[in-house]
Amino acid sequence: MMVNSFFLVFVCGLLWISVSDGQGHDQRLKTLANDFRNIIAQNSIRKQYAVLYLSKPAATSGQVYYEPTPPHVAPAFVYPDITGDMITNNADYPYTYSALTPDYNAARFGKVLHKATTIHTEDIALKLVFPHMEKWFNSKYNANVISVYLYSYYLPCPDCTNIIQTFLTSHPTIGLYIGFSQLYGGNNEGSDPAKRQQTKQRKQNLSIMLNNHHGRLFDLGSFKPSPVGKRETSEGCFVSDANGELFLTLNFTNGEVLAFFTRKLNGTIVLADKDDNDIASRTVLADESEIISFGKYMNEGFNAKFYDGLDGLKMQTEPWNQCGVDMEVMKELPAHYSEVRIWLQIQDGSPFVCLSGRKFSHMKFDRVQLEGKSEKGLTTLSNSVLVNQFKEHKIGSEERCYKFPRLNKDFSEGFRAKYITCASYTNCTYGELYDNVTPYWTPW
Ligand SMILES: [Zn+2]
User: Fold this and answer.
1) Omega into 225 within 30° of 0, i.e. cis?
2) What is the whole-number distance in angstroms between the Cα of residue 51 and the centre of ligand 1?
3) What span, in angstroms and rounded, lies between the C-alpha atoms of 372 and 138?
4) Distance between Cα 152 and ligand 1 center (Å)
5) 132 and 80 in contact (C-beta within 8 Å)?
6) Which residue from 173, 216, 167, 210 is spatially nearest to 21, judged by alpha carbons?
7) How far is the centre of ligand 1, averaged over its atoms, from the C-alpha of 185 (Å)?
8) Could you give the 3-state DSSP secondary structure of residue 260?
9) How far does residue 122's CA lie from ligand 1's centre (Å)?
10) Which residue, 234, 236, 233, 241, is CA-closest to 313?
11) What is the pLDDT along the chain (444 residues), one digit of tens a residue?
């Protein structure tokens, strides 16, 4: 996909500097996010919070120093003490870090930031807090600020992206490292494909912007419960060239096929099955971005094609079964199991899970369960299915598969499959961290 391919370019560009460098920044942002999460959570029912950290001179990569007060005894919200509508001369803030929540309805900082509606954390952090921290930092260390870390639970919104751009322009020697945990911040982005696309574009723009100013953007994902990352988005179902983009995807709330399309030519989008029979088509106009719903349930082998007005084939995606979550090796199985792999796909709009292994006799009490993520961030577990109920996929193969009920709104933000080992029908174990799990398969 576009985002990932850009990201790869950046990673390659940075490798010559230091391989561990990126990991250090990434780790530092995670530490900040984790250390302040609990403090913030006790004081807010909403998820958004931000942490701003100025890296001390010669700080070891990947470490965060708090001084003079460790965060667990710090006040819930730490920022300069600004009273009334004035930043007073003694408002210096003697810390290398601060943590913030949004200023709802501009109740606290409305006057000083000239805003009447909720002020976002990035705005407070960069416009209000940073100048004070920087001033103190300069005198304390007799040094300029080189690296600034900003963690924000949600990806910065469009307005905050502009604020970040302004910050970068006015601080050309500072490297800004931004990490976030969730892509979609609100406005029902998660369920609106057009907004999803805008968010994806913003993430990419922000990444480019930061890279151009010696910084970086990190998608930290959620910190728990799984150590397993998100699926690497397959490049196969997203094709692009200089004239446009074509993306074959799913409606995760019902299992139907979607195609995202933008192109400089008039033409036709065709949905074809595994035998290359056309099963649906739609006329599309030049220069319009469209989410096309074909009213068909996704199946293996489906692919999308774009023909221009002269019937010339201009673009074609890979078949759908190249686009899902590939075989994952289950890591935490009893020693007497040989290798077991799990594969997550969609067949006829339904989650389709296949297992491969040599010792299905050992596995007969084991279960597979789906975990869906809904728009509100809730997770829903399906009923578990016994491996015994999995059917041989092809005659004589070592693969057995099971088709779950169709996707529904519980899956709107993605889903994954868990493998649960059981010694008997009632004696099942799986680790808290769900090591035996596929990556989340997310809509974008
Ligand atoms: Zn914002």
Assistant:
1) yes
2) 14
3) 48
4) 10
5) yes
6) 216
7) 9
8) strand
9) 6
10) 241
11) 333 333 333 333 222 222 334 457 888 888 888 777 665 655 455 567 889 999 887 666 666 666 544 443 333 345 544 444 444 444 556 778 888 878 777 877 888 888 888 889 899 899 988 888 888 889 888 899 999 999 998 899 999 999 999 999 999 999 999 999 887 765 455 566 777 788 888 988 999 999 999 899 988 865 433 333 344 444 457 777 778 888 888 899 999 999 988 888 899 999 999 888 999 999 998 887 778 999 999 998 899 999 988 878 888 888 887 777 777 788 778 878 878 888 888 999 999 999 988 888 888 899 999 999 887 777 888 888 999 999 987 776 678 999 999 999 999 888 999 998 888 888 887 655 556 888 888 776
How far, in Å, from the CA of 393 to the mean position of ligand 1? Answer: 49
Structural domains of the chain sorted by starting position, each given as residue range(s) with its CATH number in brackets:
2-219 (3.40.140), 238-322 (2.60.40.10), 325-429 (2.60.40)
Q: To which residue do tokens 């799986």 refer?
A: 430
The length of the chain, given as a count of residues: 444
